[in-house]
Structure formats: C-alpha cells, structure tokens
Amino acid sequence: MQAIILGSAAGGGVPQWNCRCPICTLARSGDRRVLPRTQSSLAVSPDGERWLLINASPDIRQQLCETPALHPRAGLRHSPVEAVLLTNGDVDHVAGLLTLREGQPFRLHATRSILESLALNRVFDVLAAGVVERGEIGLNETFEPVPGLAVTLFPVPGKVPLWLEDGVPEIGAETETTVGAMIAASGRRLAYVPGCARITDDLRDRLAGVDALLFDGTVLADDDMIRAGVGTKTGWRMGHVPMTGEGGAIAGLAAVPIGRRVFVHINNTNPVLVEASEARRAVEAAGWTVARDGLTLSL
C-alpha cells in the first residue's frame, strides 16, 4: 500500500492568503524553515496504479498536477483516481470536488450525513449524477472503493462543518459528520483521522496496532490562534484536539501501540511548522512526524 500526503495543512494552507502571522511571513519570504503547504488531502493505492483520494481540498488541482502518480496516463481524458472518500463536510475537504467536475467518472463515497450536507448546496450538482456515482457508506462497514483496498469508516469526536453551524454546535459527539478511515491492504493498516475533537478509549482501541497513523495536528496548544493574535477560537471550539497538554494527542495516544505517527491538517499558526524550533523538536522527540506535502508512506 502506498499513501501520498497531497496536502498537509489545515484550511487556508501555509501561507494563508491574507495572514501575516510570523509563520506565514516566514513561508511567504521563502525562509527554508517553513515549507509552504496546501490544504488537507490524501491519496492511497494498493498497487500504485489505482488510487483513492481522501478529501478533496480547494488545492486539489495543484496537488494532482504536482503528483506524477496521479497524472493522466491513457487516451485524451483519463485519471488514475477511481474514487473519492470524504471524512467530513468541511470546506477544506469538499471544495475541491468542484474542480473534479470535468466529465471524469469516479465514485464519491461518504456517510449519509456528509452526503446530505453536499445535497443541501446545489453547486455540487456540477458533479453530474450520470458521471459521478455517490455511494452512502455506513459506519463500521468495510468496503472496497478501489479493488484491493479495504476501507472502514468509524466515528470520531467532532462537530458539524462551520458552514452548517446553527447557533452553538455540539462539540465532541461521535456521529456520522466526522469520521476516521481505517485502510487495509496486503495485511497492513493505515488510519487516517484528519479531524478529531478529543481522545477517547474507543479511539485508542480502534487505533491499537495500526502500522501508520495520520492524525489531526491542527493546533499545538488549545489557544494557538489566540496566542498568535489572529482569532478568538480555541482548538476545541473548532473541533480539534491539541497536540500537547494533558488531554492532547501526544499524551492521549502515548501508550497505544502504533507504528509510524504523523501529524496532518496543521494550521498556519502552529509553531511546529518551523523546522528545528523548540515545538518541532518536542513533537519529534515524542515519536511524531510533522507532515509535509508530498510525504509518501509505503506500507
């Protein structure tokens, strides 16, 4: 099984188009300590020929163009991307669907709640029903979006997409609106959880024994954005568990037997984006890798 992290940043990417925080400023200036990053997306294949795209970020065109494995290979129109899977309905995970409207057949998989959220916005009808088949996937059901690739969706604590919030949303509930994906091929397992509000015993049990985990690394501390002076929301309010702290991902998953541990979906204000920084060294010392665009895992 091969997995390519097409986009490793959270919504807005790095640098974010309108942000002058210290990290975005470094990235925009070309400082080698901060690599530019596009918004969250992953490609997985059992054989390097047929690919599943997990989440379609607003940067998907750039990501596809920069990834030779995903280039057209035959005839006038072709794509090795045979299916797309959504883990939630957030803008940074679904807006790229509008780029995939060019008459290219593929299957779109998601839970009923996520598909219903797309149906509420008719702009997604550009994915013509006769070209893009939408498949509803139940939680804890194993299916093969690509032959040889077994995927099981499971609930993780989260919240509804920002554009569907009505008043104060429920945060941390385990529903169909935020899911993780357990991906298996040739006896190896990869877990992809780009959004998660808290670490639970059920989640620890689910992740035990995986060969690789790609996990929500949006914020280093719950108040990252407040400290940076660019927002008022905490990681919790956005539906993202911090990397550090008593209830954070590093401590919460420390005792769980996991192969490679990689943080993805990293917000532009997260200090771990600065290579060789104190924050980066601490995260790496804890056994985690900070993802970059193009990082490839072979399992």
From TrEMBL:
The gene is pqqB. Keywords: PQQ biosynthesis, Transport. Belongs to the PqqB family. SUPFAM superfamilies: Metallo-hydrolase/oxidoreductase (SSF56281). This is Coenzyme PQQ synthesis protein B. InterPro entries: Metallo-B-lactamas, PQQ_synth_PqqB, RibonucZ/Hydroxyglut_hydro. Pfam families: Lactamase_B_2. The keyword Transport applies. NCBIfam families: PQQ_syn_pqqB (TIGR02108). It comes from Methylobacterium crusticola. May be involved in the transport of PQQ or its precursor to the periplasm. Residues 50-266 form the Metallo-beta-lactamase domain.
